[in-house]
Amino acid sequence: MTATSPATNALLLLLRLRTFVALFLVLAFFSVMAPNFLTTANAVIVSKHVALNAFLAIGMTFVIITGGIDLSVGSIVGLCAMVAGWLVLNGVDTGMGYTIWFNTYEIVGLVMLVGVGVGLINGILITRLNVAPFIATLGTLYIARGAALLSSGGRTFPNLNGTEEMGTASFPFIGTGTILGLPFMVWLLIAVAVGAHYISRRTPLGRHIYAVGGNERGAALSGVKVNRIKLFVYMFSGFCAALVGLIIASQLQASHPATGETFELNAIAAAVLGGTSMSGGRGRITGTIVGAFVIGILSDGLIMMGVSSFWQTVIKGIVIIVAVVIDQAQSRLQARVALAQEAAAAR
To answer: Keywords for this entry (predicted)?
Structure first.
């Protein structure tokens, strides 16, 4: 006797593959509604936009798997972009009559430290002070955005093209360079995605991340260092946000304190659409990447159709709600299937 009907199994398979179905639908829709959508030039533009969203979504995936949330990633992007702009243009004034200037590699390292540092603050607030992730990261969202505004008085740092004398002439390459015909940022994304996938599927750290999200108390009793895992995922999320801040400042050759506003919305949408459960314990980096493509294609397609940016925000919000509803439906169906299989096996 079969435990479940073929229709139930087919529905469950469809729910599991919902991200690929959504990707196919948006590609089909915009290829018809926006005739220039499938051109090579537009594909390059879309890949760049997807890369920015995917970096944040990868970090967000780890955070959500542990049962948390990181609302500060957009503000970390803005802060890190401003730090990069400040270092390229002004260096660091020692107050003793001379200025310390940094080359591109040093600037990258310092900016990454800023992003990881904000992530560490998030982790400490959550693990040591027992502040709820939503509140902790909401607070750092405002702090990081305020710091970005204070760094320039709300003004833009322009002309970040660097100079040979200061060793920063290569700074624009981060956001505009290409290797073997692909944008450098896409190669960066491939490296980060492969590394994150390997961690999540092949290492004890990855197993512990899932264990914390699945049953935090049980994970602690089995010897998992829960607080260390949470510190890692928030620091990694800050790392990913810092990468995006660097890329945007390099790409535009300018940095503005409003950079990254609402980016957290896209990151959450991509992660949840890719199958990451908001209740924790479930999610895949590969699904998140596909989800980032869906969000990126949706955004660019709506722009090409002339849809207002206000409506784009509304649509992304709807996407998040629908993705969460579908995820809950999948969880309930999987629980029913598991019960049916147990009952069938007991007969």
So the answer is: Cell inner membrane, Cell membrane, Membrane, Transmembrane, Transmembrane helix, Transport
